[in-house]
Specification:
By secondary structure, the protein is of the alpha/beta class. It is 44% helix and 17% strand. It is built from 27 helices and 25 strands. The strands form 5 sheets. A 6-stranded mixed β-sheet has the order 3-4-2-1-5-6, with helices on both faces. Strands 21-22-23-19-24-25 form a 6-stranded mixed β-sheet, sandwiched between helices. Strands 10-7-8-9-11 form a 5-stranded mixed β-sheet. Strand 22, helix 22 and strand 23 form a beta-alpha-beta unit. Helix 14 packs across helix 15. The longest helix has 34 residues. The radius of gyration is 36 Å and the shape is elongated.
């Protein structure tokens, strides 16, 4: 085609493009989706397809690229994965003779947060679209998953909004003043009116949103955006429900990341990507169940009654081996009802989707505990959709025989016509003596008789020439023309009736969306309970008990992920006990690198999270408090793009913990203060421990290489020391990975360096330097008359150092003050 930018076709294109300036527009032209101008340049680059041009011969080339209509979903998925929005403009009528321009309409905009295509979704994860609006120090945040219909909103401190959205893993975030949503769409009055009209409510009070203007503004913006992008009824979308972040255990993004709950810190290969808590415990068999388990894991309950109810379900299934196996066999046959419902209500479902939906409903009767078996919908779908439906409605055959008498009659005509065509072909072969004669059909010329060039002299005089080919001629006859009209009319009517029946079926299902979603939720709950029971039986997990006095006692606790990895490598995991109570609620853990300190800390946190998720836990016994928050500060990381060094990130995360933790929290700190100089770091670690002990009183596990901190157990009654044991044999060390009371006095860093294959010369020199520093340390301590603090000093040591240290009168100072004075002295000496 050679249309210029001023032709009717391109004017039509520009009119549509003006409505979606922030999306790549795929414009349907026959069997292709075409992109033009900058959209074409972008798409060709990202999809690695050929960039061509229109109107080159007129001196005004228009960049262009295209993808086949039947394979568009894969291309769309690739663009959306890269963060682009893709607008689809479809032909709303078939081309007809004499009409050069067909009607086209914008049918949908696919974005990262509104995708429903299987290639863009992960079965076990929600695909959240978020919206946030901030006024002063408060923010309203709303989340919607168009692929499942979930919709909720809340309000919280503005400083916490980003963390909430990050923790949810939102794929797309809408903000006022940023494309593609206009700022006015976040207005609370508009949101209130839009939400009430869509859900047919007199007030939003029943949703918990009454008077919460920021949450209403965010929820209204989401609904506005979904209407603009989906252009569908959204019948499956839930009413926006208020949720209170404080009603569940709060896990900030740093904790979710550090504990590797759903994503690994390092994912170099497939094994590493699977090394998360979720992947280790997930035995679910349905998409609904997998998402429910993930949501519970990221927001464990703090309601003891709710937790016990979940544990009761797991315990019942754990003891019913035969019944559990039967239930799981049934669950494996049930498809993702929530996402199939979304496709049905949004008008993107195929007949095969409906077939899978119907068959899944048929399995519900075998599941004990499902309230509504949806038998009426099962019967409706089963009696409408054929057993082997086509990929698209345009192929015909989607509707089951016997569903509609008129449809059956037309199909009979079509079937007999095919037989009649075959009879015509056989008769004409006998009449003409041309055995290669064929009666065929195509969309351009309809039905025709084809005769090869060598046999043309045998063609009867009553044959009407229709088309000349290189090696053959095509003809027609009055009889063939009449049959063609009957057959084509029948085919058109068949497709029209099938489309109508299919649409009516989708509308019937969509009208029962609430029932389907309620049943899907029950199936998800059964799936999670049986999956966690399967896990408990397989891994010897026990039911946790909750202490009345707030004590935390884990006997024979194990790290679920590391234990699973050890089992794969035919190794044994060493269990350990944890005990914290109201009298001694802070434990300082010392010991060598690679000795198991970090594992010990993490496994305590994971046991607490699993218990409140409603899962049995990896331990011999577990008596736990109900924890309101779990905090972790583990390892080194940085965010240079935001101007944050490793140490700055460490201090930022530590500040969040100290400013947010309560007495009901569980804090896990690993190596605080390691990102700066020795004395700065030691001073900070000391002060942090004092603050937690005196101001927060939270259950705390604190791993450190600053052995000086173990002295705190003598001055702070709530602090106790634990150490990870090793066995020494000459220059060799064996990590026993056993935790016992007491303080370690060595870190064995040089031994670990040797295991890491540092050059022998480096190892030997390190030992010499270490011995020198230890001698200096002891001598200075003795000359200074002892004291509460020892300090490492570097050569050369000045002769009057001992007297200067004595003059500081360290024994009269608090330990932290003494450390600070010694640090200043050290800096002076180094200068």
């Amino acid at each position: 085609m050679t249309e210029s930018p001023t032709t009717p076709l391109m004017r039509q294109y520009h009119a549509v493009k003006e409505r979606v300036p922030h999306a790549l527009l795929m414009f349907r032209l026959g069997d292709f989706y075409e992109l033009f101008y900058d959209d074409a340049v972008t798409a060709a680059r990202e999809l690695e397809i050929t960039l061509t041009a229109r109107n080159k011969e007129k001196g005004a080339p228009v960049p262009m690229c295209g993808v086949p209509y039947h394979a568009a979903e894969g291309y769309i998925a690739r663009l959306v994965e890269k963060g682009y929005r893709v607008a689809l403009c479809d032909q709303m009528e078939a081309p007809s003779p004499g009409k050069k321009l067909v009607r086209r309409e914008l049918t949908r905009i696919v974005t990262p947060g509104t995708a429903t295509e299987a290639g863009l979704l992960k079965a076990g994860e929600n695909n959240w679209l978020a919206a946030v609006v901030t006024r002063g120090h408060r923010s309203g945040v709303a989340f919607a998953d168009i692929s499942t219909g979930e919709f909720r909103a809340t309000e919280l401190a503005a400083a916490e909004a980003v963390a909430l959205i990050e923790a949810a893993g939102a794929r797309e975030v809408l903000r006022p003043g940023q494309p593609p949503v206009e700022e006015w769409a976040f207005d609370s009055d508009y949101g209130d009116r839009t939400l009430r009209e869509h859900f047919r409510l007199l007030t939003l009070d029943g949703c918990g949103l009454g008077g919460r203007t920021l949450a209403v503004g965010a929820a209204g913006a989401i609904l506005h955006y979904l209407r603009e992008t989906q252009r569908a009824a959204l019948a499956h979308l839930d009413r926006p429900a208020w949720f209170d972040r404080e009603r569940a255990m709060i896990l900030d993004p740093a904790t979710v990341r550090n504990l590797e709950l759903v994503e690994p810190l390092f994912a170099e290969d497939k094994a590493a990507r699977a090394a998360t808590l979720l992947s280790t415990i997930d035995r679910t068999l349905t998409g609904m169940g997998a998402r429910l388990l993930r949501r519970r894991l990221l927001a464990p309950s703090i309601d003891r009654a709710e937790i016990e109810e979940r544990l009761d379900a797991v315990e019942a299934m754990a003891g019913a081996v035969v019944e559990r196996a039967a239930i799981r066999k049934t669950l494996a046959k049930i498809l993702d009802l929530e996402r199939l419902l979304a496709k049905i209500t949004l008008g993107t479902a195929t007949a095969r989707d409906l077939l899978g939906f119907g068959r899944s409903l048929g399995e519900l009767a075998a599941l004990k505990g499902v309230t509504d078996l949806l038998a009426d919908l099962h019967e409706k779908v089963s009696s409408t959709i054929s057993e082997e439906p086509p990929a698209t409605l345009a192929d015909g055959g989607a509707i089951r025989p016997g569903r509609d008498p008129a449809l059956d009659e037309l199909r009979d005509v079509q079937t007999n016509a095919k037989q009649y065509i075959a009879a015509i072909e056989q008769r004409e072969r006998q009449r003409t003596g041309i055995q290669s004669l064929k009666v065929r059909f195509n969309n351009i010329f309809g039905y025709y008789i084809e005769i090869s060039k060598p046999n043309l002299p045998l063609a009867p005089a009553d044959y009407e020439r229709k088309q000349t080919l290189v090696n053959a001629e095509r003809f027609t006859t009055p009889e063939l023309k009449e049959l063609e009209v009957k057959i084509l009319e029948a085919q058109e009517r068949i497709l029209a009736i099938e489309k109508q029946l299919f649409t009516e079926l989708c509308e019937t299902v969509a009208a029962q969306a609430d029932r389907v979603k309620a049943t899907a939720a029950e199936v998800a709950g059964i799936d999670v309970a049986t999956a966690l029971a399967e896990l408990a039986a397989e891994k010897r997990y026990v039911r946790p008990r909750f202490s009345e006095d707030g004590s935390l006692r884990i006997v024979g606790g194990r790290h679920p992920v590391i234990e699973a990895m050890a089992e794969r490598d035919a190794q044994l995991f060493t269990p350990n006990d944890v005990y914290l109570d109201s009298a001694q609620y802070v434990a300082i853990v010392t010991g060598p690198n690679m000795g198991g300190k970090s594992t010990y800390l993490r496994q305590a946190a994971l046991v607490a999270i699993l218990a409140q998720t409603g899962s049995f836990v990896p331990a011999a016994e577990a008596h736990l408090p109900i924890v309101d928050r779990v905090f972790t500060r583990v390892g080194a990381s940085d965010n240079l793009s935001r101007g944050r060094s490793t140490f700055m990130m460490e201090m930022t995360e530590t500040a969040l913990i100290l400013n947010s933790a309560t007495e009901r929290s569980l804090i896990v700190l690993d190596e605080i203060g390691r990102g700066t100089s020795t004395y700065d770091g030691l001073a900070i670690a000391w002060a942090v421990l004092e603050y937690i002990h005196s101001n927060i009183r939270a259950k705390t596990l604190f791993a450190t290489h600053y052995h000086e901190l173990t002295a705190l157990s003598e001055s702070l009654p709530g602090v106790r020391n634990l150490r990870v044991t090793v066995k020494e044999s000459g220059d060799q060390i064996v990590f026993l990975r056993r935790v016992e009371p007491g303080a370690a006095d060595k870190s064995y860093g040089i031994e670990v360096a040797r295991l890491a294959a540092l050059p022998v010369e480096v190892i030997d020199r390190a030992k010499e330097i270490l011995a020198l520093h230890e001698r200096t340390d002891r001598r200075v301590s003795e000359e200074a008359g002892g004291g509460p603090v020892q300090i490492q000093l570097f050569e050369p040591v000045r002769g009057d150092l001992a007297s200067r240290i004595r003059a500081l009168k360290l024994d009269e100072l608090r330990p932290i003050e003494a450390l600070q004075l010694l640090a200043e002295l050290q800096k002076e000496l180094e200068q």
